[in-house]
Specification:
Blueprint: E1 2-4, E2 10-13, H1 16-28, H2 35-57, E3 70-75, E4 80-85, H3 92-99, H4 105-112, H5 118-122, E5 139-147, E6 156-161, E7 166-172, E8 177-184, H6 194-204, E9 212-218, E10 221-228, H7 245-256, E11 262-270, E12 276-283, H8 290-293, E13 301-305, E14 308-312, H9 314-317, E15 326-331, H10 340-344, H11 347-370, H12 372-392, H13 397-403, E16 407-408, H14 420-425, E17 434-438, H15 442-446, H16 452-456, E18 462-464, H17 469-473, E19 478-479, E20 482-486, H18 503-512, H19 514-524, E21 530-533, E22 542-545, H20 553-561, E23 572-575, H21 580-587, H22 591-608, H23 616-629
Parallel strand pairs: 3-9, 13-15, 17-18, 17-20, 21-23
Antiparallel strand pairs: 1-2, 2-7, 3-4, 4-8, 5-6, 5-8, 6-7, 9-10, 11-12, 12-15, 13-14, 16-18, 19-20, 22-23
């Protein structure tokens, strides 16, 4: 694993995942190669931010060099490009931890999600917290020299690697901060020119709050003088009138490590008893990070206090159901020594959090009204995350519900969705509840026998098939004064609807079906709670329904899959007396055969409900027997 040289140098192997990423970067990443400069500058900016914050409590850390900056210089003869910052720096253990390994689960997910289109997939690399490795896109060797602020000069660290799977680490004397030296590959000479570097800094890093400096050029050669080439002012502090869309988008891409543009954003300055600035972005597509694999670590919003970076504080500034948002919050009033514990109990933070929620919901409502196509893309990417807010944020439940979108029997396909307001506007005369059906998938919901009678009467039914839907509906019992009603539960009285049918004729049909109902009850025994004539069915022979307050079958299955106990409830079997299979059971004198057909009727209803059969082989045998008899 390690070999010692005669000095303090060690040669170590990268972790397997790092080696995979490096191989990917070096051999597959051809497009967006200029992004390496943005990633390295962002890392340097973070290092300066961290030192500025730590120096608040310990001014000695700046060692008489308090002007934080990022210097970039190039040597055309040696074919090297160097980025140096005088920020927090790293110690030996930090270098091994941060560069020799990958701690973020997002990188594992990235490697696992690669498809055959490597070129397309590798464009996502910036979203996985592996920005340092992007240096190997243009360099065949990278040298890193660093020293942690506050440590002796002799505790500097030199790290070298050619990206082939090993790196060398050595102890040297070094100034505070970090230098990254890129030994450029053949054909990458464009990055050895001042004009190109200026252009890339203006494109990707103009907003960085620290001076980014390049050597002054005289007679085509670099001098020892440096000049600042970026605005060196936090973008969110500049007047909106000075900023263009490309400024906002450039800042977003650097902030979120995203190649895609943001879908939309909001930039607000609040003055008064409390003063703060919000710059919130809605991404156009979900990032591959811990956002969807878990809710523990969220880093969507950065908290600044008077332009000093304090922490990634998404947990305190946005509720979990809005964790897809990205941006910055800059407060003038919070104390600079604020900690996570203070944040959790701070009244000013609670006010900022409420403002962040309001601005985000305002932004989503505006997008829903102004650009339906973009909003549908948001729903496709983040709709299930937003649904969590129905349970988590009772104060804003109605606003969140207004933003939700669902497939329905009136929409064409799974991708075309409707709002609850659209649904209510289309309700026919006599309809009181909002009808929905929950199932394991879109096809199962759309083809559910429980909705046949409603479809026959042109009554729209919302199709709920996402895993979160049934849980969410436990907190959303009504909307706009209309109760939400699961059509697979309780009695379904359709008499109030237009085309409700002849009530007397139905009563006569129920009475005529009493013999077959009694027969089915006897044959099915303890498998069902009851058997009755259905108002739901028009074409299918049977379906299963539950009592009004039973847990939905779909939810029961989800709980069992998650390892939880689900309350057992026997279903009610509803039958269509006009169907040939039901009539066959009624006419069958042989009780053994009648029992087989009764089980078939019940098992068909189970399958349509999404349940697993206890005896699949028996079901196949019964189907074959029926086919042979036919």
């Amino acid at each position: 694993m390690e070999t010692m040289t005669e000095t303090t140098a060690q040669t170590r192997k990268f972790e397997a995942e790092v080696a995979q990423v490096l191989h990917l970067v070096t051999h597959s990443l051809y497009s967006h190669k200029e992004i390496f400069l943005r990633e390295l500058v962002s890392n340097a900016s973070d290092a300066c931010d961290k030192l500025r914050f730590e120096a608040l409590a310990n001014p000695a850390l700046t060692e008489g060099d308090a002007e934080l900056r990022i210097d970039i210089h190039f040597d055309a003869e040696a074919r090297t490009l160097t980025l140096r910052d005088n920020g927090i720096g790293m110690g030996r253990d930090e270098v091994i931890e941060n560069i020799g390994t990958i701690a973020r689960s997002g990188t594992r997910r990235f490697l696992e999600s690669l498809s055959g289109d490597a070129r397309k997939d590798t464009q996502l690399i910036g979203q996985f917290g592996v920005g340092f490795y992007s240096a190997f896109i243009v360099a065949d060797k990278v040298t890193l020299i660093t020293r942690r602020a506050g440590s002796p000069a002799a505790e500097g660290v030199r790290w070298d690697s050619d990206g082939s799977g090993e790196y060398t680490i050595d102890a040297i004397e070094a100034p505070r901060g970090t230098s990254v030296v890129l030994h450029l590959k053949d054909g990458e000479d464009e990055f050895l020119g001042a004009w190109k570097l200026r252009d890339l800094i203006a494109k990707y890093s103009d907003h960085i709050a620290f001076p980014i400096r390049l050597p002054v050029q005289k007679d085509g050669k670099s001098t020892d003088e440096f000049e600042t080439v970026n605005h060196a002012a936090a973008l969110w502090t500049r007047p909106k009138s000075e900023l263009k869309d490309e400024d906002y988008q450039g800042f977003y891409k650097s902030l979120a490590h995203d190649f895609s543009d943001a879908a939309t954003w909001t930039h607000n300055r609040v003055e008064g008893s409390q003063s703060y600035t919000l710059l919130l972005y809605l991404p156009s597509k979900p990032p591959f990070d811990a956002m969807f694999s878990g809710r523990e670590e969220r880093k969507g919003l950065k908290l600044y206090i008077r332009r000093v970076f304090i922490m990634d504080a998404s947990e305190q500034l946005l509720p979990s159901y809005l964790r897809f948002m990205r941006g910055v919050v800059d407060s003038d009033d919070l104390p600079l020594n604020v900690s996570r514990e203070i944040l959790q109990d701070n009244r000013l933070v609670a006010q900022i959090r409420a403002a962040c929620v309001k601005r985000t919901l305002d932004l989503l409502e505006k997008l829903a009204n102004d650009d339906k196509e973009k909003f549908q893309a948001f729903v496709d990417s983040f709709g299930n995350v937003l649904k969590e807010g129905i349970a988590e944020d009772g104060a804003n439940r109605e606003r969140i519900a207004k933003l939700l979108r669902f497939a329905s029997t009136a929409s064409e396909g799974q991708a075309r969705t409707v709002s609850l307001d659209d649904y209510i506007a289309r309700m026919p005369i006599g309809q009181e509840p909002i009808y929905y059906i929950s199932a394991d998938g879109y096809g199962a919901a759309k083809g559910s026998p429980q909705i046949e009678a409603l479809r026959a009467r042109n009554v729209e039914v919302l199709l709920m098939f996402d895993r979160i839907d049934e849980w969410m509906l436990g907190y959303l019992s009504e909307y706009g004064g209309k109760k939400l009603r699961n059509v697979a539960k309780g009695d379904l009285d359709l008499d109030a609807l237009e085309g409700g049918g002849d009530k007397q004729a139905r009563e006569e049909a129920v009475k005529a079906a009493e013999p077959v109902i009694a027969k089915l009850k006897e044959l099915l025994g303890e498998r069902v709670r009851d058997v009755r004539v259905s108002q739901r069915l028009t074409d299918s022979p049977s379906c299963l329904v539950l009592d009004e307050y039973d847990m939905a079958s779909h939810m029961q299955r989800l709980m069992r899959e998650a390892g939880h106990d689900a309350p057992a409830s026997k279903p009610i079997l509803e039958i269509n007396p006009q169907h040939a299979l039901v009539q066959r059971i009624e006419a069958e004198a042989d009780l053994t055969r009648a029992g087989e057909f009764s089980l078939l009727l019940f098992e068909q209803a189970q399958l349509m409900d999404g349940a697993q059969l206890g005896d699949p082989a028996g079901f196949v045998r019964r189907v074959n027997a029926l086919l042979a008899a036919a």
